[in-house]
Amino acid sequence: MKETFSITLKSLLLILAILGCNNPKNKTDKSTMTNTDERKTYSDPEQKILDDVEQYGFHVAVVAEDEYLPGFAYTIGLTKTYNHPEIIIFGLNNEMMHEILNGLGADIKSGKNFEPNKDYDNVISNYPIKLLEIKKEHYQDYFGYCGWFYDNKFDFPAYQLVWTDKDAKYPWENGFNENWKFKQPILDRNTDFKFYEERNLGVFTTQETFDGKPILWVYHNEDGDWQFHSEENPNLDNAKLVTLESIVNLDPTLNEIYYLNFGQSATRETTNSEWKVTENKDINDF
Prior knowledge:
The chain is of the alpha+beta class. It is built from eight helices and 13 strands.
């Protein structure tokens, strides 16, 4: 059985930043790319990936959950070795996700080809699962090491394994367990709204943002409240309560910091600048 390494989403995003892959505006310089096999030095996780793909055909990477976001796991190498889409799974415990992906990898190695939008039984006990074709707009949010493996290019095919609740209902079906709703984002859709929240969630801002000032300060409070401001010390006399969807529609680049944990803030100098994530400074609650 392949070993796995576990990292947090914060570490994954740092890796993506180093690679220059976490911002869709960044373009890969093809003149500097080399094939994976030609690279001479690797970090320990990178070497582990290469060794597993060579020995087993694929590797499983696990990203641990944090206080806000669920954990997830994904394969690396299925496309290169077996010409099969990579697979990602969310929201179960690390050991189970690793075991599930190992089992699917073994099936693929034996010649099975999984198809999208089809129910499969006996993958997770007796509950059905589906594989969805993932929109490429989501790749850089979750497939950090997979992108590295494929020469920092995010154009490999990938499926999301979506599991049902105990009543065999999928997240998009009426009656799905509400407590599990945000355990697994559905990555064949929602490219316009990446937050792990309801679209109609009430969030705080000021009139200035709707008057055209850019949103440069974002706070995710310890109590779960979100604040979006155009200045560090907003005028509370102009406070507004709006829906999260409306603020994202106003500035779609806010999707870039969907992952902010409780107690974190993100700032940038302009709307074209990279976000800098820190622990929250003191700010007045609305």
